[in-house]
């Protein structure tokens, strides 16, 4: 049985972390937080701007600070950014302080779900399919290593997926 009260969602861009996080927080009566939104609020700039001005390294410094703070709070559903797991500080914070759910998603699905919006700077390049393929190869071992639960998101409606995760939480959490 798990005594930890927060749920942390990890997985690649387009996995549905932000979408599902909101639903899960509603279903479990927890507070939803998206680390990307907190980073933007604190910087007073959106993610494309942060990447433009500070590059990915600058964004990662901000992300480490925000994830360290948020993972210490009880009763959250935290949607992380897809690249949070590249930093060992974040992996340690996520793995040690809550229940980690990996939203496993294929590259074609990621591509379909991210192609319309322009707020993911890493994908605003000529070959997003190749970028997503390379990122998943590099990050998948990290997602898997810290996950308490892995769920496939390709062919399932977010609502059904949220119910599946709630079921797991209720079965494994001692205070649920
Ligand atoms: N299981 C799903 N099936 C279909 N579409 C989904 C699913 N999960 C998320 N989406 C859609 O994919 C897009 C990206 O979702 P988002 O929650 O922003 O992903 P992430 O935060 O993991 O990058 C959104 O338009 C969302 O509505
Ligand atoms: O995969 C990544 O490195 C990133 C994913 C994004 O979040 P989502 O996974 O919510 O799209 C956001 O943190 C930033 O654009 C970088
Ligand atoms: Mg997101």
Folded structure, characterized:
Substrate binds at residues 36, 60, 82, 139. The protein has a five-stranded parallel sheet with strand order 2-3-1-4-5, sandwiched between helices. The protein is globular. Helix 2 crosses helix 3 (47-70), helix 3 (47-70) packs across helix 4 (88-97) and helix 5 (107-114) packs across helix 6 (128-146). It has helices spanning 17-28, 35-43, 47-70, 88-97, 107-114, 128-146, 158-172; strands at 7-10, 31-34, 76-79, 99-104, 149-152. It is α/β, with parallel strands linked by helices and 176 residues long. It has a single domain (7-172), classed as Rossmann fold. Bound molecules: adenosine-5'-diphosphate, shikimate-3-phosphate and magnesium ion. Residues 17-18, 34, 36, 79 line the site of magnesium ion.
Detail the topology: elements first, then pairings:
Elements: E1 7-10, H1 17-28, E2 31-34, H2 35-43, H3 47-70, E3 76-79, H4 88-97, E4 99-104, H5 107-114, H6 128-146, E5 149-152, H7 158-172
Parallel strand pairs: 1-3, 1-4, 2-3, 4-5
The site of shikimate-3-phosphate (S3P) has 11 residues, from helix 1.
């Amino acid at each position: 049985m798990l005594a930890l009260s927060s749920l942390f969602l990890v997985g690649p861009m387009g996995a549905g972390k932000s979408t599902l996080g909101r639903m899960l927080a509603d279903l479990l009566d927890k507070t939803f937080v998206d680390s990307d939104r907190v980073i933007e609020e604190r910087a007073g700039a959106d993610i494309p701007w942060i990447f433009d001005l500070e590059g990915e390294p600058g964004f990662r410094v901000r992300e480490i600070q925000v994830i360290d703070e948020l993972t210490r709070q009880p009763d959250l559903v935290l949607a992380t950014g897809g690249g949070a797991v590249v930093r060992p500080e974040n992996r340690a914070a996520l793995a040690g302080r809550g229940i980690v759910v990996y939203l496993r998603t294929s590259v074609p699905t990621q591509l379909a779900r991210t192609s319309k919006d322009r707020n993911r700077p890493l994908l605003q390049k000529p070959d997003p399919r190749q970028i997503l393929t390379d990122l998943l190869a590099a990050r998948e071992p990290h997602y898997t290593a810290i996950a308490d639960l892995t769920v496939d998101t390709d062919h399932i409606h977010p609502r059904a997926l949220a119910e599946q995760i709630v079921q797991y939480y209720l079965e494994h959490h001692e205070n649920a």
